[in-house]
Specification:
Elements (H helix, E strand, L loop, with lengths): L1 H29 L3 H15 L4 H18 L2 H17 L3 H18 L2 H17 L3 H18 L4 H94 L5 H83 L2 H10 L5 E13 L2 H7 L2 H20 L4 E7 L2 E6 L9 H24 L6 E15 L5 E5 L1 H11 L6 E4 H7 L3 E11 L3 E11 L6
Parallel strand pairs: 4-6
Antiparallel strand pairs: 1-3, 1-4, 2-3, 4-5, 6-8, 7-8
Helix pairs in contact: 1-2, 2-3, 2-4, 3-4, 4-5, 5-6, 6-7, 8-9, 12-13
């Protein structure tokens, strides 16, 4: 059954992948401007990379040419890196070096640190592969000089990783304590089991003793029967003697004959009486012993049955308690951590931080929250917040790729792309629209009742981020990186009731959603950023 379900899921995944490829190719053929063609060609190249290296080369080079014409250094770097990956699949090391060098140069122009590091790593490995260690050193020195000129420091990252390492070690100690506690309980159960085994051994020894006694009694009975047989033989001999005597007394007088006959019969009756008495006594002794043996054996078996029943009942109860506690612990862990992180914690005793290349972060915050809070009682405020956040939780639960991160006061944060599989921001943008629709309905209802209402600003940005577990006693799953900061700036510069997305997110969802370009907006510590308002989802195109 499990194999059948797995086969069905794989078939659905292949069908969904094929449909996505066809949809992207149709979008590319219908695209009117070079910028959309550039992004769609890159997505097609990435989709074909694992299945068809030639197709990946075709679309990757098309995207690179368009990016070069449009002077889009970041996209030129990404498309060059994609072409190099396609050549890697074809084992063409010369072209891999050429395109990796191109990707590194464009990434340096665009300031994409992550892509610089990845390109340098691939180039240095190619040099080491042909034992050109000097060239590998020069490649790494180029990257080091670039980062030194930019003032980038890795000491902060090293400090952060050291702190996380200490926290994970503390967490491991806590889990070891819990494991020792469970081991102690199991040891107690084993002691009880050993005691039951000892009782069983004692009963078996007693049973063997009773069997030996039974054999002894049977031996005595056999001996008595042999004696009875001897008496019977003697009786036969006596009868024979009487017969002979009768022959001898034929000549005796009648009176003497009668006297001797009476005497012989009397002796014979006496022996018969003694024989019957001996048989009755032996039979009575055998009956008493057999009854006593059966009674003792029944009492022993009944006691053993009661002991086993009681021990099994106690053991079943403790096993049920342990199982319930384990299930409760798993439920609590899954309530605060993603399933993959919780599984990693249970299997290895720790969860390491993961870096994801394309994470889409959503920030939501209520406008004039402090002023509205002053108009409501604490109970009403908490009730209204709870209603809104429960609705947000329900909305994102409809999409498997979206993970709730946390709430901070009146702010709500979630993210998608926190898996090893490639995902697109479509679902999280769709969820943001549904959140605003819910708040609009709440606004209409509360305005009708003459009560204060909440209006939210929602900002979304896509980029690399690091995710992991922090804390020792109360686990907290969180994400970090510049992507989170930019998503926060998107929310701050958004109008209430709307969804504001960055240019990076726009490039990935523009073929799905109609958007309004806002121009470059100055963001704190980030400079001018291209921003877009999401208007609505485009109607599905018939295939």
């Amino acid at each position: 059954m499990k194999a059948l379900i797995t086969l069905l899921l794989m078939s659905c995944a292949v069908a969904a992948w094929s449909q996505s490829i066809e949809e992207l190719e149709q979008q590319l053929s219908q695209a009117e401007n070079s910028k959309d063609k550039m992004h769609l060609a890159l997505k097609l190249g990435e989709s074909y990379l694992r299945s068809d290296a030639d197709k990946a080369l075709e679309y990757g080079k098309q995207s690179h040419n368009l990016a070069t014409q449009l002077k889009q250094n970041a996209m030129a770097a990404r498309s060059a890196f994609l072409v190099a990956q396609a050549y890697e699949r074809k084992n063409d090391d010369r072209n891999v070096e050429v395109w990796m060098r191109s990707a590194q140069n464009f990434a340096m122009k665009a300031g994409d640190s992550d892509l610089i590091i990845r390109s340098v790593d691939r180039r240095s490995r190619l040099a080491e592969k042909v034992r050109n260690y000097r060239r590998a050193y020069e490649i790494n020195q180029e990257a080091f000089a670039f980062f030194s000129n930019k003032g980038t420091s890795i000491s902060d990252l090293e400090s952060k990783y050291e702190t996380q390492k200490l926290q994970i070690e503390k967490e491991k100690k806590e889990l070891e304590k819990e494991r020792d506690k469970l081991a102690f309980e199991v040891a107690n159960l084993e002691v009880e089991r050993d005691q039951l085994t000892t009782d069983k051994s004692s009963l078996e020894q007693r049973q063997e003793q009773l069997v030996r006694e039974k054999q002894k009694v049977e031996q005595e009975i056999s001996t008595k029967e042999e004696k009875l047989a001897e008496v019977s033989t003697e009786k036969e001999k006596a009868v024979e003697i009487i017969r002979k005597k009768e022959e001898e007394v034929k000549d005796l007088t009648r009176e003497a004959l009668e006297q001797r006959t009476v005497l012989a019969e009397t002796e014979l009756d006496l022996k018969e009486t003694q024989l019957v008495a001996e048989q009755n006594r032996n039979l009575r002794n055998l009956t008493f012993f057999a009854a006593g043996f059966i009674l003792v054996l029944a009492m022993l078996f009944y006691g053993r049955f009661r002991s086993n029943k009681k021990a099994n009942k106690i053991l079943a109860g403790k096993n049920a308690i342990i199982e319930n506690e384990r299930k409760r612990s798993d439920e609590l862990l899954l309530n605060i951590l993603p399933a993959t992180i919780a599984g990693e914690l249970k299997e290895f005793g720790k969860a390491r931080a993961h870096r994801y290349e394309e994470v889409t972060v959503l920030f939501s915050d209520f406008r004039n929250f402090t002023a509205i809070a002053e108009k409501l009682s604490p109970e009403e405020l908490v009730e209204e917040l709870d209603k809104c956040f429960k609705a947000f939780d329900f909305i994102i639960s409809q999409y498997e790729d979206i993970e709730k991160i946390k709430t901070i006061g009146d702010a709500y944060m979630c993210a998608s792309g926190l898996t090893n599989q490639q995902t697109y921001p479509d679902n999280i943008v769709r969820a943001a629209i549904e959140m605003q629709e819910f708040l609009h309905e709440q606004k209409q209802e509360r305005m009708r009742l003459g009560k204060p209402f909440f209006e939210a600003r929602i900002g979304i940005h896509t980029g690399p981020a690091v995710a992991g577990v922090v804390g020792v006693k109360k686990f907290a799953y969180d994400i970090w990186g510049d992507t989170v900061n930019i998503a926060s700036r998107m929310e701050i510069h958004c109008e209430p009731g709307r969804v504001n997305i960055s240019e990076v997110t726009y490039n990935k969802v523009s073929y799905k959603f109609e958007c309004e370009y806002r121009g470059k907006v100055e963001a704190k510590n980030k400079g001018a950023i291209d921003m877009y308002y999401v208007i609505k989802e485009r109607a599905a195109i018939a295939v």
